[in-house]
Specification:
It comes from Veillonella atypica ACS-134-V-Col7a. The protein is mostly helical and about 45 residues long. The protein has one domain. It has a two-stranded antiparallel ribbon. A hairpin with a 4-residue loop joins strand 1 and strand 2. The longest helix has 15 residues. The radius of gyration is 16 Å and the shape is elongated. The chain starts with a strand and ends with a helix. The model has no long low-confidence stretch (mean pLDDT about 90).
């Protein structure tokens, strides 16, 4: 990541990953967990 006059500049691959992460975070078909314990239980199943 480069810095360009007080702002960060990301490469295309990073920008695409950030876009995908935002999409997944808003999509209700993907599970979400409020605590680390909930996540651990889900991984054990």
């Amino acid at each position: 990541m480069k810095q360009e006059k007080d702002r960060e500049v990301y490469n295309q691959k990073t920008l695409e990953a950030m876009k995908e992460a935002k999409k997944i975070a808003r999509d209700l078909k993907y599970p979400s967990y409020k605590t680390l314990e909930e996540l651990k239980r889900a991984l054990d199943d």
